[in-house]
Design brief:
Rossmann fold, 5-stranded parallel sheet, 9 helices, alpha/beta, disordered N terminus
C-alpha cells in the first residue's frame, strides 16, 4: 500500500457482493462493513465494488436488466461513493459503459482465478453446457445455469479487484478463505483476502502504527 514515491497510499478495499447483501439485510459483518464505510470519510481507505455485482441473482430469483438498480442498491447501503470497477465484457453479463474489452492477459488472469476457485466447473459457458447437456441460449433461470453464472460472477469480482490493483478483498464467502485457495489467490495479486472484521482490525492497526 505504498505509492511510487514511497509514501503511504490510501488502501483500496474491494467489497464483494456478499458484503453488499450483508449491509442490505443486516447480516453478520454488517457492523464491521459500516465501520469500513466510516473510515472512508476520514480518508482511511477507499472502497470499491465490482461492476459484475450488478449481474448477481436478485432476491426475487431474477436478474437485473439495467445497471441503475445496482447503483440504487449501493446508495441504499451507504456505498454511493464507492468506486465501481469495470469487469470483462461478457454478453449477457456485462452492462454497457461498465465493461472492458478482453485481451489475452485479462483472459489468463480470469482462468487462473477460476481454476483456483472452481476447478470442477468449466470456465467457458459453451463447454459447461456441453458437459451438462444444456442448451447454450443462456436461459439464466435454470438451476444449473445459475450455478455457472454464480461462479463466473465470483471469479470476475476478484478479477476486478486484482486487475484494478486493489489491496484488500473483503468477503464472507468461505470459498475465498479456504487454506487450499487463499494463498494462491493472494499470489495472483489479491494483496490480502479478509472477512469484514479482519479488514477493520487490519486498517485500524495500520492507522495506529502511523500515529
Amino acid at each position: 500500500m505504498n505509492n511510487v514515491n514511497g509514501t503511504r497510499a490510501v488502501p483500496r478495499i474491494t467489497l464483494d457482493h456478499n458484503c453488499i447483501i450483508a449491509l442490505e439485510e443486516q447480516r453478520d459483518g454488517a457492523d464491521a462493513l459500516r465501520e469500513l464505510i466510516s473510515l472512508t470519510e476520514g480518508g482511511g481507505c477507499r472502497l470499491c465494488v465490482a461492476a459484475i455485482g450488478a449481474s448477481e441473482l436478485l432476491r426475487d430469483g431474477t436478474y437485473a436488466e439495467t445497471f441503475t438498480g445496482f447503483q440504487n442498491k449501493l446508495t441504499a447501503v451507504g456505498l454511493s461513493n464507492a468506486e465501481i470497477l469495470s469487469s470483462p465484457a461478457y454478453i449477457g453479463l456485462a452492462f454497457l459503459g461498465r465493461a472492458l474489452f478482453v485481451g489475452d492477459s485479462m483472459l489468463d488472469l480470469e482462468r487462473r482465478i477460476h481454476d483456483i476457485l472452481f476447478p470442477s466447473i468449466e470456465l467457458d459457458f459453451a463447454a459447461y453446457c456441453a458437459a451438462h447437456s444444456l442448451e447454450t441460449d443462456r436461459d439464466w433461470e435454470t438451476a444449473k445455469v445459475k450455478k455457472w453464472r454464480n461462479a463466473k460472477c465470483d471469479t470476475l469480482a476478484l478479477w476486478c479487484h486484482v486487475w484494478h490493483h486493489g489491496d484488500i478483498f473483503v468477503t464472507t464467502d468461505e470459498n475465498f478463505h479456504k487454506v487450499s485457495k487463499k494463498p494462491k489467490l493472494i499470489a495472483l495479486g489479491a494483496g490480502n483476502i479478509l472477512c469484514p472484521n479482519e479488514a477493520v482490525r487490519t486498517l485500524n492497526t495500520c492507522r495506529i502504527a502511523l500515529l
